[in-house]
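Homework help thread (please don't just give me the answer)

Our assignment gives two proteins as sequence + structure token strings and asks us to describe the second one. The first is just a warm-up. Here they are:
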Amino acid sequence: MRNRSRWGMAAVGAGVLAATIGLAPTSALAARPARAKTLSATILMPGTAGAAVGGFYTAIQEAKRFHLKLTLKSAGPGVFDTIPQVASGEAAFSLTDSGFVLTARSQGINVVQVFAPYNSPVCVMFHPSENIHSFADLNGHTIAVTPGAPWWLWVQAHYHLTNVNVVNYSYTIAPFISNPNMVQQCFITNEPYVATHQGVPNRTLLVSKAGFNLYDDVLFTTRDEIRKHPDVVAAVVKAVTAGWTAYWKHPAPTNRLLPSYGDTESPAQMVYVDRVLKAIRTIPVGYSAPARMHQAADQMLQIKAISPAVARDWKASFTNAFLPKS
């Protein structure tokens, strides 16, 4: 993965040439500093390209400033869990959320979160006609969720939701459109926009407002990668930080390129995604708050999603050490 430069051979060649033609090496040539080696890294991208991960695509260009060749590789259609691929060495970096970092560690996979772009975009969407003002009001409703989703297990227990009809989320808003009493899980970046665009009024509640606030689309790697190649990890995190900083300021240039990576969003949806994500971005860029990570581990333990040992060792699940110093 890593390409080392050949400037040592070039310097030898220059010396031989100077001797051959009878010239002494110039002081400028003699004093020329060694050029930094170029590093390489690949980020395995789950799902599809889109504005929600726009900062990572901006990082491809920003990486050059840090002598890094950064490649973003699709994990494949419908592949969202890339922890096994990173654990096996297929790629050194990928994206997930803080909860999956913790559950992977509970399974003996030593992954570490190194950059967090924004807070949880998970929400529930419901019809305005329903008398829903908080998560406690979900009692008596039908809700479509992914079975075993940590956020739902925690919300269900925390708000004592004992009178809900839980059905499997089908990754479409069709049931929501046909059933005026339906509540469904969603990402604030996606389903609410689609519903509104199709003329279906809707309202949302962010799960983070309920107190379950995992960082999402976090960049992670393995503890071995950090130990063996800290220079690569540092360069990747610097590039990604610069990428997101640039993207938050001027998303349009990257958004124009995203269709070439397979993004099917309209320009209007890209603008919408940028707006809603800016409201939940991390400040400083990429920073994981220790108190938040501690709380996440405690909450994951409460729903028995991780082991007590991993909950106690929550500090090992993330690091801010590679973020650029302000």
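The one we have to describe:
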Amino acid sequence: MLLERTWRWFGMGDTISLSDLKQIGVEGIVTSLHHIKPGTAWHIDDILPVKKMIEQEGLIWSVVESLPVSDDIKLGTGSRDEHMENYKTSLVNLAQCGIKTVCYNFMPVLDWVRTDLRYKDNDGTETMLFDYHTFAAFDLYILKREGATDDYPESIILKAREIYESMDDEEKEELAYNIVIVTQGFINSAVEDTNDYKYLFLHSIEQYKKIGSDKFRDNLSLFLKEVVPVAERHGIRLCIHPDDPPFSLLGLPRIASTVEDFERIFSQNNSLANGLTFCIGSLAARKDNDLLQFIEKFGERIHFAHIRNLKFLSDRCFYESGHLDGDVDIYPVVELLLKEQYRRRNEGREDIRIPFRADHGKKMLDDFHRKSNPGYPLVGRMRGLSEIRGLQTAIERIVKGKINP
């Protein structure tokens, strides 16, 4: 009983076709209605054509990633109540269309952050890097965020200054544009690619900075109070994505980064509709996170898994490595996920199989000649999917033998 093999697909604009995915052994599709902005309701007439397109290739729409939570909901301002109702309407309509797993995040301003989208690994592949010192250079000297110096020790400030002074104007602009626009623009984002994007970005930061961590947690609690009962009534499995990376950036609150954070989140509503997207790469970027502890504590709530790996260059500096050859031992993680499936089967749950996707991938071979979103090349992800499929096939034989000797 292997994990369900899924693949993130970006719709008709994706250079990878659904028929391609069928050929490489994908079972389920992870996608979204990318043209619909956060806060707007998804209607059945929007959902069904995409579902039909997927099913015509013999695949299923396994997971919505993401049904985005608007800034008004996160901030508790403006059109929050209207957007909350639209979110609930979207859940009901997805359920009526038979799509039951919905991934979302509650990150402020940025959904994920990398400082180099073309980091060259030793084997000639390209991957993505997060360098904390370079990010500090962006924050302190390019963005010039007010109060930023209070968020960094002197050693980081000095290193960031050194990095900034080594960059020419084109490199500084590329760094800012990649962080603010390139990594965000393809994920149901409210980000606008305009000449004053840095000014708008700073404005967004100020909005979130005013509310602080406690108020931000209260806003998430209100969101869960409103949407989880609707999800539960309609058989929807909501699963929050961890912060990426799972530590504070830009002086903003991070409230989905640690075991304690998720204990607080799940205490808001004990329903299994209040679940987790278990993203290995995101959680592992914080060295004090124990991935096995996450599965042991929250296994019954894991409705979706992102499997990727990373290698640390130093604390808070890492790059995305091959799926099996990073600093995370993937074997025991996959073993526990497979055991969780057996536990669900014995418990009589209907949602036995956990959909996973080979998250991100290194650019290699023909990927250099194809257009793709950052982190989403064809060959690199196909390699990761194949490696994980082989690994879990071997583990499954062992686990099954122990459970059914």
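TA reply:
I won't write it for you, but here's a hint about the kind of observation we're looking for: The two ends are 16 Å apart (CA to CA).
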